[in-house]
Design brief:
about 220 residues, 4-stranded mixed β-sheet, 9 helices, 4 strands
Length: about 220
């Protein structure tokens, strides 16, 4: 098993930044989704995280609204004079129909994502982007969805488990089990790297088990 440090350093900047933004959203008590816009060389030019449940000032006009998806916030940083056709929109989760339509409307050249959206999977709304995601056997897929599941679990009433998590126990059992093994509540590490490094052996095992299930 290669170390977390080796894998993290090898990941494209867009992948690392999307995951970092998702972690920032998670630790802030929001929905754990991050997105970036990159140029043809992979350099991050704009970024955003989900802020639909944020209420703090200074996070942009969409903050606290149902439009404040990570992808929309990243697109909101782009400038009209940019050649958007040369850019790629990355997200930790498959973009919803709203974000996919927005990217197409403004002329973003391509869309890429790390993981299927657990909510979309659970509700039968997956595939809205019409785009194939990154490596379906990747550690980063599991990492993105563990953070997403934790964010919806923490937001659920104490007496009621998230319907998304319940459904994902059947659809993504390895990721759900990894989520269930985490300490209760939100992560305490201020940055994603030490959190992922601590989680890495279990994340590796979950990814390996998921790979075997998908390939069988």
């Amino acid at each position: 098993m290669e170390s977390f440090d080796v894998n993290w350093a090898a990941a494209p900047e867009a992948v690392r930044r999307c995951l970092t933004l998702a972690y920032e959203a998670l630790t802030a008590g929001g929905l754990a989704v991050g997105a970036v816009l990159t140029d043809a060389g992979g350099v991050v030019l704009a970024e955003g995280r989900n802020r639909a449940y944020d209420n703090g000032p200074g996070a942009g006009p969409l903050c606290g609204t149902p439009l404040a998806h990570a992808e929309m916030n990243a697109l909101g940083v782009a400038r009209t004079e940019w050649d958007l056709e040369a850019l790629t929109l990355w997200s930790t989760q498959e973009p919803c129909s709203m974000c996919t339509a927005a990217a197409a409307f403004v002329g973003v050249g391509s869309v890429r994502f790390l993981a299927p959206d657990p909510w979309a999977l659970a509700s039968g709304n997956d595939g809205a982007s019409g785009v194939t995601g990154e490596d379906p056997q990747s550690h980063w897929l599991v990492a993105a969805n563990v953070m997403f599941l934790r964010s919806v679990a923490v937001a659920s009433p104490e007496t009621e488990e998230s319907a998304t998590l319940v459904r994902c126990r059947d659809l993504e059992p390895e990721t759900a089990r990894l989520h269930d093994s985490l300490p209760p509540g939100l992560p305490l590490e201020p940055r994603i790297e030490p959190w992922l490094a601590k989680l890495w052996p279990a994340l590796h095992d979950a990814t390996t088990a998921r790979r075997r299930r998908v390939q069988s």
